[in-house]
Specification:
about 300 residues, alpha+beta
Length: about 300
């Protein structure tokens, strides 16, 4: 039996018991994938991270990310939370500094800049992959039926249903307003039928609208992944990364750097804020970053 320390962080928030909770198992070397999956099921949070020795000595750590049911190659809130946790390890109380953390994830090395200090620290990472569009031919009527809303409530302005991936694919579903977003109820059986009809697609629904609760946010969003044991996710950084492709396509931002705050988790009582920043050059995304705050809420020891 070996004692392994773990931390619980709330991510994409500066307030405890809001945002997206994350378990981080430190010193995970020696655990096999089956053990990691069972531990993730024991925590039963949307994701659990296992921190291992890096394969490249110049990197900070290798990490593996698990939902309660499966392993992911990349995820946003585990990247932000783990970067902050490792940057703050060994710091004295009240110390303030900016540091660079490089995490080896399934999608490749992910570089994170962490601004640590009193309270909730902030981390921002470069997208290891820029969003790519995936062919999706399912009618909006079928998507609406799986979400429990009339099909005429899908879409606003020129935004239409589209699928994007920056490491994990998402079906980006624009809806008319906040009221419609609040009524969405995913029918997992109908959604599975949509997935099976699209051989190239194993994606999750990411519902968004322009209307927001917080005046400084650009979009309001919800994400559902019952297939992975996540009925609804309070904050999804990998979805925001993919969503950058939809913003570029439908909003056509001018050349330059653009910053968007995306609110999520409000319907769950776990409000979250994700910062998406992208650099547009010649009508394409040259680079993009996801950022947010995180705060530690618990720590303990696994006896495994």
């Amino acid at each position: 039996m070996r004692a392994r320390r773990y931390l619980i962080y709330d991510v994409f928030t500066d307030t405890q018991l809001t945002g997206n909770p994350l378990a981080i198992v430190l010193d995970a070397d020696g655990l096999d994938p089956a053990q990691m999956q069972r531990i993730a099921g024991e925590f039963n949070l949307s994701e659990t991270v296992f921190v291992l020795a890096p394969e490249q000595p110049v990197h900070t750590a290798r990490v593996r990310i698990f939902t309660p049911r499966t392993e992911l190659p990349f995820a946003g809130h585990p990247t932000v939370g783990t970067a902050i946790a490792l940057a703050r390890a060994g710091e004295t109380s009240g110390s303030e500094r900016t540091s660079l953390v490089v995490l080896e994830e399934g999608v490749g090395p992910v570089r994170c800049a962490v601004s640590a200090g009193n309270g909730a620290s902030f981390a921002e990472f470069d997208l290891p992959r820029l969003p790519e569009r995936i062919l999706f031919e399912t009618p909006a009527e079928a998507v609406a039926a799986s979400l429990g809303i009339p099909h005429h409530e899908i879409g606003f302005e020129n935004h239409a249903v589209s699928v994007w991936s920056a490491g994990v694919p998402y079906v980006c579903v624009p809806v008319a307003n906040l009221e419609v977003a609040g009524r969405v109820r995913l029918d997992a059986r109908l959604w599975d039928e949509i997935v099976l009809q699209n051989e190239a697609l194993i994606g999750f629904p990411y519902v968004y609208c322009r209307e927001t609760v917080n005046h400084d946010c650009s979009f309001h969003a919800r994400m559902f992944a019952p297939q992975d044991g996540i009925p609804e996710d309070p904050a999804t950084g990998s979805a925001a990364a993919a969503f950058a492709g939809a913003i570029l396509t439908y909003d056509e931002p001018v050349e330059g750097t653009h910053r968007y705050w995306v609110e999520q988790g409000i319907e769950m009582g776990r409000p979250s804020r994700i910062r998406l920043e992208m650099e547009v050059v010649a009508n394409r995304i040259e680079a993009a970053r996801i950022g947010g705050r995180a705060v530690r809420v618990a720590e303990g020891t696994l006896l495994l």
